[in-house]
Design goal:
Blueprint (H helix, E strand, L loop, with lengths): L6 E6 L5 H10 L6 E3 L2 E6 L1 H10 L5 E10 L3 H10 L12 E8 L6 H16 L9 E8 L2 E7 L21 H10 L8 E3 L6 H10 L20 H5 L13 E5 L2 H14 L5 E5 L14 E4 L14 H14 L4 E6 L2 H6 L11 E3 L2 E7 L5
Parallel strand pairs: 5-6, 8-9, 8-11, 9-10, 11-12
Antiparallel strand pairs: 1-3, 1-4, 2-3, 4-7, 6-7, 12-14, 13-14
Helix pairs in contact: 3-4, 5-6, 6-8
Length: 370
Amino acid sequence: MTDHAPFEIFLTGTPGLEDMLLAEVQEKGFKNAQAIRGGVTIQGHWPDVWRANLDLRGATRVLARVGTFMAFHLAQLDKRSRKFPWGDILRPDLPVKVEVTTKASKIYHAGAAIQRIETALKDNHGMTVSPEAEIVLKVRIDDNRVTISVDTTGESLHKRGHKLGIGKAPMRETLASLMLRHCGYNGSETVVDPMCGSGTFLIEAAEIAVDLQPGRSRGFAFEQLASFDQAAFEALKRGAPKATDLKFYGSDRDAGAIKMSRDNADRAGVGPLIDFQTHGAGELQPPEGPPGLVMVNPPYGGRIGNKKLLYPLYGTLGETLKTRFRGWRVGLVTSEPPLAKATGLPFKPQCAPIPHGGLKVWLFSTNKLG
């Protein structure tokens, strides 16, 4: 890997929503983007790695694939690991952790492979190895091909640095952004969430509307790599948010959730754009102005409470939306398709399941309600 040669960058995402992540990646101008299972690959250089971490809302983490070679036995892995230019990427003063997965290869023992790579790092390159290190090398041995990736993200990208308060079953920001995109949201319309919890959907929607970078308030693992250029990274950061006349509306019957949402929105810098109120779904009224998107993540049986008790709640929500929100689109998340059906809303055909919090959930969406 040379300074001028592009390398592959893997943007991991939520399975089932790879096409939504691909659309975002292409929209943000990254080159040679291709959706694969579990994410999107692009070709680029280190500034593309930094910008992907800073700018992408739907990616979970960014892996820089910094090298590849063939190895048919441990001695060969040892030799080629010793020759690999680790010093171009890693700093000798910071510890590193090595993780290995192996599949359909003559090197089948991941623990032995880890030991050989760690020894090469220490003996030939003066690196320190620690299981607690923040810098992680992810090595995949597949059909005898060794692919070396560096996790450039650190903590998952859903941790924006703003949401200190969370509810019982929080929606991850990365997943929320992809779901908003799936429902056609692009930052040009209002969003209403009648069961807003910790406010994730609304905060993401407001940030999109004013073009705030999702990674603006946090640090990244790539800042500890030898390839990092602080001045070049700072140049990628945008200034003040753009102006908008849009307002966003959140409600919840739990006053504690509303306070938590307000605090989270204030920390994210979008508090003035979001009107939070304490009331139940049956009291929901459309705000003044043109129709937009109702986005809701109601309780579901496997997540919160007893499923049988939730059918009246979904029925009330559906009736409220049908009678009061004509011209609006609806997006609804649930682990129980029968609960979505209980709303009586004219949902589009059911999409593929999406992993969320140890469950499989579905995103149901409508066209404009008649």
